[in-house]
Specification:
The protein is mainly α. The protein is 59% helix and 0% strand. The chain has 3 helices and no strands. It is flat, with a radius of gyration of 18 Å.
Length: 117
């Protein structure tokens, strides 16, 4: 963990929260569960491969193109996750990734249709 409390390349919104290790969780869950979930969140955040959204776009079509590129990248990452989950026989995860992929690909199709008008 860096001096600023961040783990790896995690964005600031995933900065370390000292409250994550509660000694007396109010919902009855153990501190270990909180720590494990937080560790998984940090690991996922540091392994993100999504493209950063450009801050200098002005035209609407440039925004649509930028969104389409990011949705396509996300869909590709999701399909990789589906294959991995299937390989390790994590049926629930594969089903979840498949459901998410359907929604992402539907929106990607709408963005691409808008670009090709």
């Amino acid at each position: 963990m860096g001096g600023d409390g961040r783990v790896g390349a995690a964005p600031a919104r995933f900065a370390y929260d000292s409250n994550i290790l509660r000694t007396n969780p109010t919902d009855g869950a153990s501190p270990i569960l909180y720590f494990t979930s937080y560790t998984r969140l940090i690991r996922a955040a540091t392994q993100l491969t999504l493209l950063e959204y450009p801050s200098d776009l002005i035209e609407g079509s440039a925004h649509v193109l930028a969104l389409a590129e990011r949705f396509a990248s996300y869909a590709t990452a999701l399909r990789t996750s589906i294959r991995h989950a299937t390989d390790i026989e994590a049926v629930g995860s594969a089903a979840l990734y498949t459901d998410i992929t359907r929604g992402v690909e539907k929106r990607l199709g709408l963005l691409e249709a808008h670009l090709h008008r």
